[in-house]
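Aim 2, interim progress. The first record below pairs a target sequence with its structure tokens.
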Amino acid sequence: MAAAASVGVPATVSEKQEFYQLLKNLINPSCMVRRQAEEIYENIPGLCKTTFLLDAVRNRRAGYEDPHPRVRAAACTTLGQMATDFAPNFQKKFHEIVIAALLRTMENQGNQRVQSHAASALIIFIEDCPKSLLVLYLDSMVKSLHSILVIKLQELIRNGTKLALEQLVTTIASVADTMEEKFVPYYDIFMPSLKHIVEIAVQKELKLLRGKTIECISHVGLAVGKEKFMQDASNVMQLLLKTQSDLNNMEDDDPQTSYMVSAWARMCKILGKDFQQYLPLVVEPLIKTASAKPDVALLDTQDVENMSDDDGWQFVNLGDQQSFGIKTSGLEAKATACQMLVYYAKELREGFVEYTEQVVKLMVPLLKFYFHDNVRVAAAESMPCLLECAKIHGPEYLAQMWQFICDPLIKAIGTEPDTDVLSEIMNSFAKSIEVMGDGCLNDEHLEELGGILKAKLEGHFKNQELRQVKRQEENYDQQVEMSLQDEDECDVYILTKVSDILHSLFSTYKEKILPWFEQLLPLIVNLICSSRPWPDRQWGLCIFDDIIEHCSPTSFKYVEYFRWPMLLNMRDNNPEVRQAAAYGLGVMAQFGGDDYRSLCSEAVPLLVKVIKCANSKTKKNVIATENCISAIGKILKFKPNCVNVDEVLPHWLSWLPLHEDKEEAIQTLSFLCDLIESNHPVVIGPNNSNLPKIISIIAEGKINETINYEDPCAKRLANVVRQVQTSEELWLECISQLDNEQREALQELLNFA
């Protein structure tokens, strides 16, 4: 491109024509031409690209012929790609001109394909556009979309044209999904047209449109909520039921199927318990699909060559003469059905009880369904959900179900070959232990589990050694390093799941599990050695944190293993490691007993140093810092004889409120309530001088959504505010230092707590 096309210099007519040719080349059938065009496009400055693209989209005249529809379609597609690649800055910078240009293009009735591309680009742009910006255009955008919808619906009725309409209903769904409750005022203008499309789009060629419209209706319903949606709920459910009835007699690859499955799930979320009446109609077809045996075949090589890719088969060579084949379309349907059964069990619980036995008998064998990863993931994910449902039938029924689940689930941890699936199985097992509680594993289960976890940890260390060897080899380069880092991330993720399982065991069995744990102790100690990579140290510390929290005061017998690593890692460069160390020091104070007194005393100066560090409140560091503040609060509360409380308290108060770590934030607020309710003179301050600060902390807690009305702490905080209000002069002084948002937050707290 010519130099004149740089930012701030108007482009000439020839430059614009050159750019439009480039856009044509971006969609050229020739791979070589496309690659050359992509290389040129990548080197054009961002602002310049946007200006040219908007000109192309708007179809402006500038002394040359209007851009060809294919150019305009390519421009829309490219805008969508930029909205993805440069989000959210692209949206923040160009929201006004891009939204306007795409809407005008959608309104232009000249070419359905261009309209469709514009609608698609708008969806992509909306996805990463801040809600606060979209609100500015919501009214004009919605009215524009509605007027286009009316026109396109008439075109469908008259001519059967559907391309732009298919994309348009998806755009409406995206706007509703993004704007949520702000879409309520527009609900009534869209719903009649959307229902009408579902009613009339009955021909075979309109199946995709019908499916997308059903999806749109469910998104709109979820956005506006049950109260608003109930006026149409019965009518919409009848449309869904009719479609469901038709689908039961249709082909497996009917495009409506996937839209229907997800739409039912959204309807369940909207209606809650009111959805139970429809459950039999939804669940039975899902169980049938989830139970389907895959189509498999053993074919000669010649037969495989004669089968086209369009048949939806995948083949694996078993030698020179034969191949094993499996039909993949049925597998996707099976995986989706399994995932939806999990969803209903999770959402409805007691409403799903009558299906638990049937579904668990289906799911447990699917832990070994190696034809499709997502089937095994869904099978694993279902286990704790089904156990929660089974609780309603009583402890005996629950124990029988767990007996059916437990052994295959443990074995799957030892045999699963795929890392992503393995992590889900391990996560499911950890959650299942928490559902079942103390004593859920017999000696055989514990022995097998211990061997598996030991093998996982030993494999973790061995893999690290092998990666270091590969870094010394001749063919080592940046590409190899990226591959090694990917492997390392997978290993670390499995390590986090080992930690999750141990957490579940410590939190349910308490100190009774420690004799079993000691077979793993040397490996966990190895994780926190100073020479280990930081993720090892982080997760090793987390495991010791759990031992301290759930097995105290017995945990003190391991103190020499973690004492110095815990203190030294307070200085680590990595915030995740500092957080794990700080949390451990906090739970020592809270749960550790008198044996931990000297260690708590040593911890305070280290914690203070982290908090006072110049960059302690940056986005990267703030979670670790807030854990340090919380840890000091726990030491002040539970080990006050380890520290000069009156000296440290003013500092601790000055560091509040906590914003990011909600769990630690509520603990600090609870301790603050203790201090205020006891009229602690250092906290209240001379002549109540600290109360304005305290009131602002409470207001910020509400703004940051730290305060949950179901938590007893909310009522205590509200009572603190009410107590201050009894002195008009003091109250006026407090609120004079608050902004409007803080005042509104306090009022809301008083109204609901």
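The second target in this work package is listed in the same format:
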Amino acid sequence: MESQRNAAEHAAQPGNLRLILIMVALCLAVFLTGMDQTILATATPVISDEFNALADIGWWTNAYFLTLSSFQLFYGKLYSHFSIKLIYLAAVALFEVGSLICATAPNSVALIIGRSIAGLGAAGIFSGGILITTKIIPLDRRAAYLGIMSGVFGLAAIIGPFLGGALTDRATWRWCFGINLPLGAVTVVLCAAFVRMPKEQSTPATSFAKKCQQLDIPGTACLVGALICLLLALQWGGSTYPWKNGRIIALFIVFGVLTIVFVVIQTTSITGTARTIPSSLARNRDIWLAASYAMCISGGVYVAVVYLPVWFQTVRGSSALSSGALLSPLIAGYVVGSIIAGAVTSMVGYYNPGMIAGTALAIAGAALLTTINLDSSTARIVGYQLLYGFGVGFGFGQPSYVVQTVLPSADIPVGVTFITLTQNLSSSIFVAVAQSILQGELRSRLQSVIPDLDVSSLLNSGAGDLISTLPPESRGAAIEAYSRSLILTLYISLALSCVSVIGALGIRWGSMKKVKSEALNGTEPQTIEQEETTEIKSEEHQVNETNESK
């Protein structure tokens, strides 16, 4: 049986050409989903003019992120109990269907529906790509390939606004979604032809009905509902409605109730024995520390990516396209850092050095970014962004390596999607926090500069309109107030970078190469928790033998 399993795993490991084609397919899908998050940044004004739907602009992005975040763990359960390859192809197909609806949308409602379906598919693409690599690439070589995937995702984020603007100006905004169709088809064809997953010989055959019972539908429904309420509250609070509005309070209350019900379902057998979060994940401190690290790194960089372009445009007077170019050092640092971190992790076999280096660089870069002002040179701003980007790149992919090393094989899908969920949620949460800080500080500073100014009405206008509507003699002070208010949002990135020290130093050192050597010796790799349990049992056995001899 052991020889059959090893033979199956060996057969699943692709040759060089096949591996290249598989990685091209996976990176292409990751590129499309990453680009889909930012490509509308320069196209929304044109779309709103065509549909006469200025009020729906936020929903064209929010609908995508709602389904993208809410269904992460559900995909983890699907990947745990069904064919990873088939679920991955289904996720890509859903993303393609959503893109087709968006490309042909006759009105704003259809566009929102298409974005929701595209997000539902995208929720399973990044984690599915990681899981395919876990099955076809040995653990000690895996970090290098995953580093490339993370780098491609960051590269897509910066290309998105440029490509969206070019397609909108030269052709039509519909190509922002239509471009996904042929490129996504390439992913489907390459994966269907070349991805061959190893057979799990030790897993008993299970009927389709029993597999569905293991999906924990009640728990999933509560979790999805809770996340949707949380994200809606964060998206609407402080912008569409005041934070004290009854709708926002009700959403937070429902979120709390559904979260409590979800915890009860996971800790009792009220709805059966199926669990969305397996005990091996829930009781493993390294997983939670990895999740906290992912939360800090992702939340911090998203705040910088959102508010640095606003600073470039409103304070430095850059155009939308120029602000994207000025932001490119941050993304470039992230891409290069991800690739280097993956290669280093593969060589040394430990993920901890990348996390520690990422934290140190991120703290230094974020601290320097908080010092920029109206007189800062472009060279300084570029250098600070590169440093912070390197830090984020070094640390971004490491939490997924922790999951793949310390969890049993059967629980890796849920672990990977759990980390992805944490990254997506943290970006939404901390961007909302940053928006509240910006509005509060801007209101206070403008009121002190111009006491008779109706700040509330100005905050409902655009950034450029805000400055242009002020008296000429007050604009200099208003720009200074705007600059300081925007820079304060970067203190969130600095604070999160500092908090990431807990995860970077608290996670126990685990060798990815040790797991490889154990697999070659025909023994199942143990998690750190299992190794400690084995040691305790061994000590107890020695004590019992001593007592018996006495």
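Residues 412-449 form the longest helix (38 residues). This observation will shape the mutagenesis plan for the next reporting period.
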